[in-house]
Amino acid sequence: MGAALFALALAAAPVLLPVLPAVPAFAVSAPAEPFVTASTDGIGNVRVEWYTDPGVTQVEIAWRDSRGATDTRTVGAEQGSTSFTGLPAGEWSATVTAISDGARSSSVTVSASIAGDPAPAVTPEAAPVPQAAAPSTAPAATASPVSVAFAVVPREDGAIQGGSARVMASGLQASSPYQVTLRSSSAVLTTGTVGADGAIDATFALPDDIAPGDDALVLTAVGTDGLPVSGEYPITVAAPVVAEPTVPAAPQADTSEPGGLDELLSLRGDEAVPVLLAGTVGATAATGAAVGAASVVNGRLRRLRLSRFIDRDLAGLPPLPKGGFADTVRDVLTVLRGVR
């Protein structure tokens, strides 16, 4: 009886089992931050390079340019580098993060200064296929770089006025309108429609009345992003050369012809008689020659020489003052000129 009760008590006593400690879940540690560098050629291209721990499988690059455009690119860590091209001028920056089995490292930020023309838009290179990661965000639509060139052909005399010009451009919106104007006056020189390939190649005439000085030909068109674009070609317009008219010289009277007055005045009286009788002088001299008196002809020739001297050689002299000797000279000249 006693033994039975003892056995029953043992059967009713609770069985205590040892409590084992909970096994903690496996924790994935974050990878160390990558070592990152960024370099640029100064004309819109940036290269980003990195070095990561062996366990890192992916690298994420989130970038931003000077115009506020952003994008995120995820590539395999073993790639070691990636490039961005066609970036606008200004400050460019990127945040780089290493990824290992979903764990992310601390981010590292790098930047680069890009010089050059800010007109070209962002054209990032195609992102490689990410390895075991969500697809990256697609880049925003961007405009293609625009190229503009002019060529001016002056006239044969070298003047730009009245010459011609040629405009060539690419990277424009297909079938969009364009025009070329003169900067100084806004005069429209030519208009047209961009080709299906987004290019322009047109020749047009330059006005004859372009004002001299510094000016420019201006192309206005539409880029592939639908925004207006323009390009200028500076020109220097010279003043036109006007030829001075040639005034023909007045014909000079020939007074040295045979038998003329110059020949007659150079003869003595006896030599002049035959000339006078030939009728080459006036009636007064002819009358003296008709009587055959050489002395009379000599006297008339002397008076004729004096009269010619007064009329031709003294005509340009200033008038003589009145009074005294001047009146006497004037009276003598008057008498001499009145003698026939």
From TrEMBL:
Coiled coil stretches, renumbered: none
Keywords (A to Z) from UniProt: Signal
Annotated region (Disordered), positions in chain: 121-140
GO BP annotation list: carbohydrate metabolic process
Signal peptide segment: 1-27
Protein name in UniProt: Fibronectin type-III domain-containing protein
